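> example.struct
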């Protein structure tokens, strides 16, 4: 069986793992940002 390569994805250098890492990191940042803002408001 032949695996198909997408030229656009290969040119940009993004693999599926990179996209999953980016989504995971952004979800952690977005989930923690309200906590950080709340902490800063309570301390300040």
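> example.seq
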């Amino acid at each position: 069986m032949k695996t198909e390569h997408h030229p656009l994805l290969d040119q940009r250098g993004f693999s599926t793992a990179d996209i999953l890492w980016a989504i995971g990191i952004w979800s952690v940042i977005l989930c923690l940002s309200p906590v950080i803002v709340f902490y800063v408001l309570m301390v300040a």
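> remarks
The chain has two helices and no strands.
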